[in-house]
Design a protein that fits this description.
This protein has 149 residues and is mainly beta. It has 2 helices and 14 strands, in the order βββαββββββββββαβ. The chain is globular, with a radius of gyration of 15 Å.
Length: 149
């Protein structure tokens, strides 16, 4: 059973099977208790305007991963996302250990300096023109997947 409620403009989720939920805008405490200990999250994990600095022990996400206006500076141990990856207005400079993305990558307001271990992106990579991310992608094996925002 899953319960959802809103407080202070954020949606909170409580579920016995949290690994299969879609989670939005949770608090740092909730993330640390229910998600950060897991190595795999089966659902969609969308974190926006959250006071979260790390993805904890997460190595894979079975759905989409969306990070927007969070304090995350590293993707940590994350190496695979089965769906799309949305990184919007983050202070990360590398994709770190992320190797495979089963969908698209959308990079808005995120200036990467390294693609880290990224090896496979099934669909497109969207980025803003004339940014460090755009320049990095133009000089990578993903050049043919670039779509300018």
């Amino acid at each position: 059973m899953e319960y959802r409620w809103f407080k202070d403009g954020r949606m909170y989720v409580k579920s016995k099977d949290i690994k299969r939920s879609t989670v939005f805008g949770v608090t740092k405490e909730y993330f640390d208790e229910y998600i950060g200990d897991q190595d795999h999250f089966e659902g969609n994990l969308i974190l926006s305007d959250a006071n979260i600095t790390s993805l904890g022990n997460l190595e894979s996400v079975g759905g989409n991963l969306g990070l927007s206006y969070t304090k995350i500076t590293s993707l940590g141990k994350l190496n695979r996302v089965s769906g799309n990856v949305f990184l919007n207005n983050l202070d990360i400079t590398t994709l770190g250990k992320l190797e495979r993305v089963g969908g698209a990558i959308l990079l808005g307001g995120t200036n990467l300096k390294s693609l880290g271990k990224l090896d496979q992106v099934r669909r497109k990579i969207e980025c803003t023109k004339n940014t460090s991310t755009h320049e990095l992608l133009m000089n990578s094996k993903f050049r043919d997947k670039i779509v300018i925002l």
